[in-house]
Amino acid sequence: MKKINLFLALIFAVALIGLTNCKKDLKDSTPESKQYIETVEGSFNAIYGDVSIAKSGSPETALTPTWNVWSMYTTNKTFYPANPLFALVRGTELLSMTDAYLWWSTPANNPLGRSAGQPYSVSIPNENVRVVLEAQDVQNGDDLYLGVKDFNPSTATFPLNVEAYRIGDFLSVNADAVTSLPGANFTIGVLLVLIPFDKPATIQYMPGYNTPFGFDNIKYGIYFREYQTYSVGSGNSVIYSGNKKIISMTIFLTDQNGVNQNLAIIDGPANGKGLALTLTTTKVGWYYDTTIGIDSKDITIETREVPVN
Q: Which tens digit of pLDDT belongs to each residue from 125-138?
């Protein structure tokens, strides 16, 4: 009987040792002894903030994204030492061969595209992270809105709203008060200086972790300029409504002889503020100021005799 009890105790001890050895440890066995990160289940909602007209504050016609691209960045320098600021999460801070590790180590999962109405849910490394939302017109198309949100999953409340802000600018010009006057034998044009959107600078070099994101954080390539000329039609003529560039401009007048005259040089609107411009004048008509010449002619007197008897 004692032999049987001893044998059973031996089997129990071996099983206990086996279970202990099967337990996954988050502590790395390498000399650096890195501490692996656990994950937190999270989900995100996309919120779009549109450009408004600077003077009235009324919103311009909203663009309609059909495709959202989600990216997750980390500030973890222990596992991503080569990145000075933010690095795409690649799962190196997670215990290998776990479901979360397999997900994040697959490059196709970060960034990840989803239909605009489809939720984004994922296991998030429990560390300081930055989620980036690019709302596009079509899959792999142009970015219409950009959102950046810094958070720590351990303190965040899910689903987490990510506010995405309209990229680009809006400009309309109404020149009817000028071009409808008598003698208005000219056209009105606008010379735009267009500055392109710089996405890498916006995502990577935005001020440090946990900085609130807004229109003023969207970066544009100040060293690149594009010049384009547009004609102003009747009514509220939409000159530019784009999502790739911001603008500054010169409004000019072209007379009937093809000579340009600058009417005004206007700074571009502030980020997130489009412009609806109306041209006005105190004139009552447009006429040439050439001096009127007077050419006098003498009257010729004809003498006739009329006999009266």
A: 999 999 999 999 88
Considering the domain architecture, whether residues 116 and 200 belong to the same structural domain is answered as no
Pick from 121, 108, 110, 105: nearest CA to 88:
110
Confidence at residue 297, expressed as pLDDT on a 0 to 100 scale: 54
Strands laid side by side in the 237-242 sheet: 52-53, 273-278, 169-174, 237-242
Alpha-carbon span 118 to 136, nearest angstrom = 14
Amino acid, single-letter form, for residue 233: G
Distances (CA, A) of 244 to 32, 34, 207, 212, 267: 45, 43, 22, 22, 18
Name residues whose C-beta falls within 8 Å of residue 4's C-beta, 6 or more positions apart in sequence. Answer: none
> Is 106 domain-assigned?
yes
97 located within any domain: yes
Helix (H, G, I), strand (E, B) or coil at 250: strand
Give the integer Cα–Cα distance in Å for 244 and 167.
7
Q: Which residue range is the domain that position 51 belongs to?
A: 39-166
Provide CB contacts within 8 A for 83, sequence distance 6+.
Answer: 77
Distance CA 269, CA 166 (A): 14
- Residue listed under structure tokens 């603008």: 247
Residue 253 near residue 260 (C-beta atoms within 8 A): yes
Secondary structure of 201-245 as H, E, C letters = HHHHCCCCCCCCCCHHHCCECCCCCEEEEEECCCCCEEEEEECCE
Q: What is the pLDDT of residues 15-25, one digit of tens each?
A: 444 433 333 44
Which tokens belong to 157? 């409340």
Cα(161)–Cα(183) distance, integer angstroms: 56
Q: Are 45 and 119 in contact (CB under 8 A)?
A: yes
Cα–Cα distances (Å) from 118 to 45, 54, 75, 138, 168, in that order, read: 9, 33, 27, 14, 25
Indicate the number of domains in the chain: 2
